[in-house]
Task: inverse folding
């Protein structure tokens, strides 16, 4: 799956060693690197289905990748509707598919 | 046809070339066929051989007397539309911009490619320039058969089949 | 409630240049950007830019971004909030901001809306499958995060963005199976199209997407040819095996903040969609609220840079800070915009501005 990570590029430099960041996706242990967004890290692992649509249960991935279309919304550390395409990955993040319109546990 | 498939027809290509007599020295072939607001070729030329003027939508025109074929315009053109051509006996020598990996290496033989992306012969890599000013665009010196003069435009690595 | 004289919403080329020019006139500003980094769409542009030297022609977009960001970060008069989203804009010039986890209200005296534009999408069966991405998304993924969108991709749209992103995909090692275009002609600069053709990428005009096929992810795409009445030609369908599909069918200005203040807006398709009606100073119908860059009309980055500089000049004047070379620079910027818009590719924009009755029409 790391075949999707670009190692050599004629214009850009991706050679920098970046710190590995461990997180979970639907309770599965996964990883990314420092500087990744959640969606980019999942995509690099071949995970393109991020959530499901609320009523018809259609697969959802990202579309615009700049925080505009809300297709990439997931639940991150218990907070729903997080735009994973513009949210930087942090160590230990708990990322879950959002299968509904989002519920907040307000205490 | 250029508008439908991005491929200039032979007449268009040849209109950008100087005479055969002039091509004994390397000259810039600027395949810019549209009025685009752009002038780096003109402003980069150290010999003031490329004319555009105040209205930067003007299509550039090369003064072949001033042009030395140095190749600076070839790696300055944002559209990568410029190649440097020259004739030497039964060969045509080109300097072309190239921005892919793996990079060509001196001495290798690559495919010679035409504007439709088809293989038309072989290209011997004579030299690969890459200084800081080129900003990652390589300038590749190649040698092809002279009869490919108006057809050759780029190279493709032989293993990429 | 906080107080800031000049707030610039959006830290892309237009916003950055507005802040720099305002600072040159002695006026301090706050740039608010919802992304983790400044630079807008420049940070993913690995290709060399067109235009003239004044708009950094020949420089790669990523390097233009670095230069502008550095200039902004080193300027003591410019404050920057990243990861901060402006969520409300009011006609008394109050804005509300979600600054990371904090919700803040700011009373301003002048506002520049430089929020850019976003990808349009295309309607076809199963267009919501994962793996179907906007062109900007593909660029972000590969050029910013170093992740390939897939290994075999089909590009929809032959405007400059579709053509350039196809080339960038190849540079990232992705196979581009082709570029499809619904119209009869290639939309973008032919030099971009010629590059793709010489590197072996076919361009299919009069062709569109009929549907995407796949379970949980796009696996195949069915294209179909169109006749000159834009009708699908039965029997002309073709299937492509892909692992990603890229949609590059145009951008539309992000003006949702402007619609909150009920300034005069107009739908002009040539400019990208719903745009604010602007005075010659790029001021909206609400005094002290300006717009520039793709948020005011979808053009090139070169125009965004000049518009940003212009707005930095006029917004600071509105606040009483007059740039020492005000008149000279203003004339220069207007002339530059005219020049950028005067060729055949600028025609659409000129027509658009005439319909808008807006600024700087050539």
Result:
């Amino acid at each position: 799956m790391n075949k999707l990570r670009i190692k050599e590029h004629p214009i850009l430099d991706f050679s920098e060693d970046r710190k590995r960041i461990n997180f979970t996706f639907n309770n599965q242990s996964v990883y990314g690197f420092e500087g990744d967004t959640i969606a980019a890290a999942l995509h690099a692992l071949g995970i393109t289905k991020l959530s499901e649509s609320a009523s018809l249960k259609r697969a959802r991935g990202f579309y615009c990748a700049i925080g505009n279309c809300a297709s990439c919304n997931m639940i991150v550390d218990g907070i729903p509707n997080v735009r994973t395409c513009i949210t930087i990955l942090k160590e230990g993040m708990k990322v879950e598919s959002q299968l509904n319109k989002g519920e907040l546990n307000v205490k | 046809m250029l508008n439908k498939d991005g491929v200039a027809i032979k007449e268009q290509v040849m209109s950008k070339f100087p005479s055969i007599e002039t091509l004994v020295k390397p000259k810039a072939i600027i395949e810019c066929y549209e009025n685009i607001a752009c002038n780096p070729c003109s402003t980069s030329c150290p010999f003031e051989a490329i004319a555009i003027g105040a209205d930067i939508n003007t299509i550039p025109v090369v003064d072949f007397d001033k042009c030395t074929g140095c190749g600076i315009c070839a790696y300055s053109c944002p559209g990568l539309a410029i190649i440097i051509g020259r004739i030497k006996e039964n060969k045509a020598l080109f300097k072309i911009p190239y921005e892919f990996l793996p990079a060509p290496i001196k001495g290798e033989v690559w495919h010679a490619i035409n504007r439709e992306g088809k293989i038309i012969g072989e290209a011997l890599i004579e030299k690969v320039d890459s200084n800081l000013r080129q900003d990652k665009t390589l300038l590749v010196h190649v040698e092809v058969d002279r009869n490919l003069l108006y057809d050759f435009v780029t190279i493709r690595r032989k293993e990429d089949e | 409630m906080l107080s800031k004289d000049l707030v610039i919403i959006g830290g892309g080329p237009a916003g950055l240049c507005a802040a720099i020019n305002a600072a040159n006139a002695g006026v301090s500003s706050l740039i608010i950007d919802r992304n983790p980094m400044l630079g807008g769409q420049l940070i993913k542009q690995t290709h060399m830019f067109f235009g003239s030297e004044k708009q950094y022609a020949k420089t790669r977009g990523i390097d233009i971004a670095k230069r502008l960001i550095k200039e902004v970060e080193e300027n003591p008069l410019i404050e920057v909030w990243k990861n901060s989203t402006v969520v409300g804009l009011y006609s008394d010039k109050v804005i509300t901001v979600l600054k990371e986890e904090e919700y803040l209200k700011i009373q301003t005296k002048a506002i520049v809306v430089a929020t850019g534009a976003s990808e349009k999408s295309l309607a076809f069966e199963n267009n919501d499958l994962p793996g179907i991405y906007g062109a900007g998304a593909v660029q972000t993924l590969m050029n910013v995060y170093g992740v390939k969108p897939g290994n075999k991709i089909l590009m929809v749209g032959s405007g400059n963005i579709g053509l350039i992103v196809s080339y960038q995909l190849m540079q990232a090692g992705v196979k581009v199976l082709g570029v499809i275009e619904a119209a009869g002609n290639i939309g973008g600069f032919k030099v971009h199209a010629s590059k793709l053709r010489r590197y072996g990428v076919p361009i299919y005009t009069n062709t569109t997407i009929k549907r995407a096929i796949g379970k949980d992810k796009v696996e195949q795409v069915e294209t179909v040819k169109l006749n000159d009445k834009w009708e699908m030609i039965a029997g002309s369908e073709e299937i492509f095996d892909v692992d990603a599909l890229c949609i590059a069918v145009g951008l539309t200005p992000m003006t949702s903040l402007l619609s909150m203040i009920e300034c005069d807006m107009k739908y002009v398709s040539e400019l990208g969609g719903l745009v604010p009606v602007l005075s010659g100073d790029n001021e909206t119908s609400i005094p002290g609220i300006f717009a520039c860059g793709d948020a005011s009309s979808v053009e090139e980055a070169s125009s965004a840079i000049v518009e940003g500089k212009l707005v930095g000049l006029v917004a600071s004047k509105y606040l009483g800070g007059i740039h020492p070379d005000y008149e000279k620079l203003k004339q220069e910027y207007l002339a530059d915009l005219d020049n950028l818009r005067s060729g055949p590719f600028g025609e659409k924009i000129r027509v658009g501005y005439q319909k808008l009755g807006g600024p700087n029409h050539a």
Remarks:
- The CA atoms of residues 3 and 44 of chain A lie 8 Å apart.
- The beta strands of chain A are 20-25, 28-33, 51-52, 59-60, 73-76, 79-83, 94-97.
- Chain A has a mean pLDDT of 91.
